[in-house]
Amino acid sequence: MHDGPAPRDDSQERPMGQALLRGWRCKCPNCGSGPLLKSYLKVNDTCSVCREELYHHRADDGPAYLTILVVGHLMAPLLLLVFETWRPEPMTLFTIFAVGCAALSLYLLPRFKGAIVAYQWAKRLNGFGHPA
Description:
Helices cover 51% and strands 0% of the residues. It is mainly alpha-helical. The radius of gyration is 19 Å and the shape is elongated. It comes from Seohaeicola nanhaiensis.
């Protein structure tokens, strides 16, 4: 039975799909147990479980761009569909879609940040590779 984290082998392939799923869940891309974020969008310097260093990440504006892209592509056609189908009052339509866009954006933003950090970890970008 294995009691602790596996010893680090930097020559090993890091599984992309697993890392992205863990990042999406805002968990450490290495162990999948420790929290990736210490607040809404602030990444922990190290994982509290496996001690993987996470401070190397460079997510910058990527999560915001992805969030805008996804929310816009989901909500714009939905807005048109709702308007053409039911013709609600303009203020009703505005209220529903303003709240919907804000809620979806707040939900997606930390998940995209986690996925981007996990992608960088899996590809060994920005110092995640631990060069010898």
